[in-house]
Specification:
The chain has 3 helices and 9 strands; from the N terminus they run ββαβαββαββββ. With 148 residues, it is of the alpha+beta class. It folds into 2 domains: 63 residues, 3-Layer(aba) Sandwich (Ribosomal Protein L9, domain 1); 77 residues, Ribosomal protein L9, C-terminal domain (Ribosomal Protein L9, domain 2). The strands form 3 sheets. Strands 4-9-8-6 form a 4-stranded mixed beta sheet. A 3-stranded antiparallel beta sheet has the order 2-1-3, covered by helices on one side. The protein has a two-stranded antiparallel sheet with strand order 5-7.
Length: 148
Amino acid sequence: MRVILMQDVLHTGERGEVVRVKAGFARNYLFPNGLAREATTGNMQYFEQSKKKIEIRHEADRVTAAELAEKIQGTQITIAKRVSESETLYGSVTAAEVAEALENAGIHVDRRRIDLEGGIKSIGDHPVRIDLHSDVSVEVTVTVVPEE
């Protein structure tokens, strides 16, 4: 199925692109979330007409993300987890835990924007990338310490 992406979609394409996706992905995820429209002639014309408004909104989102990135830059958060005698974690640190720690520091970030690259499974300092916008990402340091 051919769709027009109304927003950037990770691993699929960027806003404004006409891409081919599986019908179920389009029906169950892209269309209900407003991320895409079917690539019909009418929708192509609609997209061209509303492109200016979308560009303005996209730029405003980018500026907001850049301001948040400046606030986050260099932030170091600490998460206490249970560890075994060999100092390995029982489980791993999740994006939700990182988001909660940032929230406690006064910074609101959606957990889906946090990229742990396979998870954090050991104690120590770990760099974590946060993709605030398609053009803006920032890195924070997560320090995992043994729970007492």
